[in-house]
Amino acid sequence: MEWPREPAARSFAVVSEGAATPEELETLFEDAFVVRDAAGLCALFGAGGVLVRGEGPEARGPGQIAAAAEAIWRDGRTYVGGSPRVLQAGELGLLTGRAGIHVVRRDPDGTWRMAIALLDTTTRPAEEAG
């Protein structure tokens, strides 16, 4: 499969509205990675959000998160989380799956945002399919 060279220039409208559930947030997160939508990906993080790729450095804030995602894409990798296990305690959630662990939280307006996203991007998309 040939991946585009540049991230998508647009964001999905639904992203700016946030996610209604932790499960929906995971789906939006995965979608933003697959279509290489850096702006949409950044919109899924709450204030102070952190993205970490494996043992790599922490990316904090929209600029660093976008740069980290673009580095993942340049490396020919993406994030496909699959069906995570979701644990929820009030305003906090923990999503665990084969490709990552995420801490999420519900904003005062009721939308869910990423607080911490720890990704395992060691598998290339072609390897995941087979």
How would you concisely characterize the structure shown here?
With 130 residues, this protein is an alpha+beta fold. The chain has 5 helices and 6 strands.
Strand content: 25-35%
For the CA atoms, what is the radius of gyration?
Answer: 14 Å
The helix count comes to 5
Give the integer mean of the pLDDT values.
83
Helix-residue proportion = 25-40%
The CATH class turns out to be Alpha Beta
- Indicate the CATH topology: Nuclear Transport Factor 2, Chain: A
Runs with pLDDT <50, length 5+? Answer: 1-14, 126-130
Question: Can you tag this structure with a few keywords?
Answer:
alpha+beta, six-stranded mixed beta sheet, 32% helix, 6 strands, globular, 130 residues, disordered C terminus, disordered N terminus, 29% strand, Nuclear Transport Factor 2, Chain: A
List the helices and strands and how they pair.
Blueprint: H1 13-16, H2 22-34, H3 38-43, E1 45-53, E2 58-60, H4 61-74, E3 85-89, E4 92-97, E5 100-106, E6 112-119, H5 125-129
Parallel strand pairs: 1-6
Antiparallel strand pairs: 1-2, 3-4, 4-5, 5-6
Structure description:
This protein has 5 helices and 6 strands; from the N terminus they run αααββαββββα. Residues 1-14 and 126-130 have low confidence and may be disordered. The chain has helices at 13-16, 22-34, 38-43, 61-74, 125-129; strands at residues 45-53, 58-60, 85-89, 92-97, 100-106, 112-119. The chain has a 6-stranded mixed beta sheet with strand order 2-1-6-5-4-3. It has 130 residues and is of the alpha+beta class. The radius of gyration is 14 Å and the shape is globular. It has a single domain, classed as Nuclear Transport Factor 2, Chain: A (Roll). 32% of the residues lie in helices and 29% in strands. The longest helix has 14 residues, at 61-74.
